[in-house]
Specification:
With 533 residues, this protein is mostly helical. The strands form two sheets. The chain has a four-stranded mixed β-sheet with strand order 3-4-6-5. Strands 1-2 form a two-stranded antiparallel sheet. A hairpin with a 3-residue loop joins strand 5 and strand 6. The protein is built from 23 helices and six strands. The protein has two domains: 17-46 and 84-389, no CATH class; 424-530, no CATH class. Residues 1-14 have low confidence and may be disordered. Helix 3 (25-38) runs parallel beside helix 18 (388-402), helix 6 (88-127) packs antiparallel against helix 18 (388-402) and helix 7 (132-146) packs antiparallel against helix 14 (286-304).
Amino acid sequence: MQSNPSRSAARSPAAGWVHWLFPSVADLILIALLISLSCGAFSPRLLGDAGIGWHIRNGEQMFHTHAITRIDSFSSTMSGQPWYAWEWLYDLLIAGIHHWMGLNGVVFFTALVIAMTFAMTFRISLACGANLFVVVFLLGLSMGAAAIHLFARPHILSWPLVVIWFQLLRSWEIAAAPGKDRSLFWLPVLMLLWVNLHGGFITGFVLLGLFLTSGFIRYSTASERGRRLVAGKRFAHLVKVTALCSLATFVNPYGYNLHVHIYQYLSNRFLMNHIQEFLSPNFHGVGEQCFAVLLVITIIALAVAREKPRLSELLVILFAAAGGLYASRNLPVSSLLLTLTVAPILSFAVAGARANADLAAWLRNLLSRGESFASRMTRMETSMRGHLWPGAVVLLGLVICLHGGKLGSRRLLDAHFSATRFPVQATDRIVQIGLREPVFCPDYWGGYLIYRLYPQDKVVVDDRHDLYGEPFFKNYLKAVLVEPGWEQVLKDDHANWVLVPAESTLANILRQTPPWSTVYEDRMAVLFHRNAE
């Protein structure tokens, strides 16, 4: 009997070492994303949102006071008012990273979480039977859609949690017997963490609701007594897990008040209609167009699917599509969910097209060759176990961050707030003046000023919209849009110093309005001071 050469090679020591040393596609995805986001072309984008500034300072404040923040201390208008710092655990984490590694560490940590999320999505899709090339293509579209929200903010921790959460639910649903449902008890553990990291934990309950709906319909429509009994047990099990997850959400510093606060915030139509990230996406952007292509591919995949998708998959697809179309901030999570659900469906359809007699022979042959190559690549991918190279890159990145972004004498990491997006020079001037008064600025600059000036100076407003509320922001918009009563708004806020974009409407009117005088001006920003009348 002849021996199988491939099996002999698989048993050889050399092949075993290859499986440990050679990087897999998932490893390459992680490394490529990590490098491009931390020190490559996309690294400046991660500090494109000023909110990370007050997250860092809040974490530092909690370290100093040994207490979780409950009242505001960063603004002059809300000072001493109750503040639900619902992302307090992230603030502690990012403040610790900033203390040891500065902004380089903040950017590197964010890049690592994003890279791990997409690499994990890739591996999960393959494990569910997806074609390697199909996954890579869909993952590329997902990365493009997520680009609009690639910021060093706590929301990026919700991305891997959503992926893990969905996969646990999907694995539970396709399990052969109720006895394999124990993995679901990881969900309350994850929720305990999630509720203290980011408000995106609500997505976890939406997914639970979708799978509960699917389970209840399966139970209600089961004709055979045995299937109905099994469906009932599985549904009851998921109900128990959902109840445990609900209880886990109350393990936070604010108790049930956090739930009330989040509801009031998300149900406020004025805020939802005026906060940019909650508005529907503008499909003139590249990221939005990537999501549109992903939606089209989803429709095609459902149309050509060889087997009818499970109800839970259809519900998740509808939720992801609706969420992405409703608010631009949902595009990353929606894209990841679409990739996880659509990749296996589309892959099975492509595999079945090889036997479709209605297709041209050359096309069937091409599909067959592509499927065969993808299968070999997938087997090779799943055999890679070492992940040596990602570990080495992460370790090297940590060393570089701990040495101020340098490797020897060469600087590789230089994370900083861009002077083309934030008032860097104007803030330097404020520091030189030694200002000890509140500064009025656009809400999207507030976090940067908190990072640079606190505790010497406070801001009048920043992007913590849930803290300030609707009445305050109505007056704020009246000031920045120079509507009737704008001067009184600044007086009521005791805003004697105003820092605004150089070409803004408020800057143009203040230049012509006594008693305001220009203290500093560059292409980015103008600093005004109200002289004594």
